Amino acid sequence: GGRGATTGVRCGAGAAVSIPLLHGDCREVLQTLPAQSFQTVAIDPPYMTNNTKAKYADSRMLAAKQWTNFAADWDTWPSQEAYQTDVELWCEAMRRVMDTDACIWVCGSHHSIPTWDLALKRLGFWVNQWVQWCIPNSMPNVAMTQMVSANQTMIWARKSQKSKLYYDKQAARLYNKGKNLRDYWLIPNDSQAGRWFKHPSKKPVALIHRQLHISTPPSGAVLDCFAGSGTTGVAARELCLDCTLIERQAEYIPMIEQRLAG
Predict the structure, then answer these.
(1) β-bridge mates for residue 62, sequence order
(2) How confident is the model at residue 16, as a pLDDT?
(3) Largest distance between two CA atoms of the chain
(4) 146 contacts: CB under 8 Å, gap ≥ 6
(5) 3 state SS of 154
(6) pLDDT tens digit string along 77-133?
(7) Is the pLDDT of residue 66 over 70?
(8) What does residue 165 show for φ and ψ, rounded to 5 degrees?
């Protein structure tokens, strides 16, 4: 699918983009936003890995390469049923603010993607494709107890089967040498940005940039209600798209503000 170069920037010099950052639980914050006000939702929600402590905290190799294990208290649930309930509540809240022809991108791992796929379908969304994000510089499995996890899945869905899908095929060709884009994207993690902006599940700007570029109308508005490190805001700004960010964890708010200010 092509490497992760950021291409096709739409912004002209001095173009103004609105990127409000809202702090709070997304289900509550979304109730304050107008209905049908977003054309694209791009989220990297909690995966329910239930990891609260890094497995290889004492590894010299990981320390030298500045890799970090995914571990966060906010990524734990008491049961699969509890996580399923929250996913459906999130989907309902996002669906209300999505335009009739809006689409949604959900990034996840094997822990979460089946749950999200089922919830989206149960609530009336129409899944267009599953796209694989292939990560050539993924973190190794130090203990060698299983294969290296070098890919994640992205669900690309629209609000309903009747929604008109926006797909910019010309933009998509930019990422595959003039040919139509394939459903696997070879994009490395941005290790440099990871050193500056600490978040256990930070995504590279090139990944979100590509999502938004091929699926969002030029005047469309973007929503990310699990803002994390603010990557979606950075990618939206590159494409001259207004973007609303919502983040519940107070510790990440200054990091997002710093990143957007930079």
Answers:
(1) none
(2) 81
(3) 53
(4) none
(5) strand
(6) 899 999 999 999 999 999 999 999 999 999 999 999 999 999 999 999 999 999 999
(7) no
(8) -75, 125
According to DSSP, the β-strands at 98-108 and 126-134 are unpaired
**Residue 84, SS3 per DSSP:** helix
One-letter amino acid of 82: A
Task: Beginning with the edge strand found earlier in the chain, give each strand of the sheet holding 38-43 in spatial order.
Answer: 21-23, 242-247, 221-224, 38-43, 98-108, 151-158, 126-134, 184-186
Contact of 113 with 69, CB cutoff 8 Å: no
Highest mean pLDDT among 23-27, 63-67, 70-74: 23-27
Amino acid at 179: K
pLDDT digits (tens, 9 = 90+) for 3-47: 333 344 455 555 689 999 999 999 999 999 999 999 999 999 998
Predicted local distance difference test score (pLDDT) of residue 1: 46
d(CA 37, CA 19): 14
Q: How far is CA 200 from CA 47, 129, 133, 194, in A?
A: 12, 26, 17, 9
- Cα–Cα distances in angstroms (integers) from residue 209 to residues 4, 127, 142, in the given order: 9, 20, 31
d(C-alpha 248, C-alpha 75), whole Å: 12
3-state secondary structure of 81: helix
Query: Each residue of 196-234: b (16+ CB within 10 Å) or e?
Result: ebebbbbbbbbbbbbbbbbbbeeebbbbbbbbbbbbbbb
